[in-house]
Amino acid sequence: MSWVDGQPSDGLSVHDRGLAYGDGLFETIKVVDGRPELLDRHLDRLKRGCRTLAIPCNSEALRRQLTAFSVELVDGVAKLIVSRGEGRRGYAQPDPVIPRTIILGSPFPNYPDAHSTQGVKLYSCTTRLAEQPLLAGLKHLNRLEQVLARSEWQDPAYAEGLMRDMSGRVIEGVFSNLFIIESGKLLTPALDRCGVAGVMREELLERAGLIGVDTLVTDITLERLLDADEVFMCNSLYGVWPVRQIEACVWSVGPLTRKLQRLVADLSSNT
Questions:
Q1: Which residues belong to the active site?
Q2: What is the pLDDT of residues 31-41, one digit of tens each?
Q3: Which end of the chain, C or N, has fewer beta carbons within 10 A?
Q4: Is 57 helix (H, G, I), strand (E, B) or coil?
């Protein structure tokens, strides 16, 4: 199931700048019972990204398209792509910019229940994230670093990979955000140099604050991560996965991780 510019289609111009240059952004949205979860957060992040890249964004039109698409999809994943549209050869932006909207539907990933209940093992990736503050936080279409990182392991014992930047700071997973817990405080890596500012990350920071948990966005070294009391990963599709092992370091699933996991487990009923 796929739509292009609001109409069912499986075709795309070879002149689209998303294909030629990765000139655009995307959102991966969980759809349950015909409703897109965390839609406001997804659209807010997309709008921020479009402002940064100077791509026109009609968020209300996108909301209508996603709502209608989700009703047809019913359950699964809606991937929204907004590119700068078509252009001639060369990096210069077309004038005017006429953005293109693509929505792709797919079944929900078949993640094992054990990832949520027992926790996951992370692969420590050697691929490093380049530091580019202008693009930091955006979910842009240039994902080759993640493609390379994901190619580093095939062993299904690893559910996710841990990624660091060129300075060795811990940043995120290949397709998830990272949190650690120190003495009851919730910490997540700063994403002002690189990384994707996930909508579930944003949701968890807000919900943790509402229940009185201190939160901190800061630089996190590998040593600090390995010394944490609890560690977990999150994204908008699976919610929260406790981390049980990175390299030789092992954790049990902690109480605050479980509490936060339960807080976001009810999203489907409240969306």
A1: 28, 139, 172
A2: 999 999 999 99
A3: N
A4: coil
